[in-house]
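Researcher: I'd like a candidate sequence for this fold, 128 residues long. If you have to choose between options at a position, lean toward the conservative one.
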């Protein structure tokens, strides 16, 4: 969490969910910056997808997307996401920086996904 709080982009307000159980969809309950989000007494989640093209490093962005751009830029250039043809297909996909002030995510499902843990620990419960 300290890495997020120390980010030069942590002060930008992000669309968060506090009351809605479904992460997908239109429901934004508030716009908070990183410090405000982690100070909330109730579960507060940032779960906003942007296309890779929208947050690609070097793009001039709206303030609310700069935190996502910063974290995407931390992926090493030699990672599989930056290799030739795969990069082209990845650019058609979404980047979703998921933050939760109480850890974890609301139970959800999705198609095949590539997950990168930037800070903390990642645990899954898989249900078939």
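Model: Candidate sequence:
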């Amino acid at each position: 969490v300290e890495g997020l709080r120390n980010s030069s982009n942590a002060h930008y307000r992000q669309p968060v969910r506090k009351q809605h159980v479904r992460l997908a969809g239109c429901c934004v309950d508030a716009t908070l910056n990183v410090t405000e989000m982690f100070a909330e007494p109730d579960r507060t989640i940032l779960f906003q997808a942007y296309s890779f093209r929208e947050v690609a490093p070097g793009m001039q962005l709206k303030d609310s997307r700069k935190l996502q751009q910063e974290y995407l830029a931390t992926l090493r250039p030699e990672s599989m996401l930056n290799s030739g043809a795969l990069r082209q297909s990845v650019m058609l996909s979404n980047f979703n920086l998921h933050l939760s002030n109480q850890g974890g995510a609301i139970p959800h499902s999705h198609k095949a996904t590539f997950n990168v843990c930037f800070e903390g620990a990642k645990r899954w419960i898989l249900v078939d």
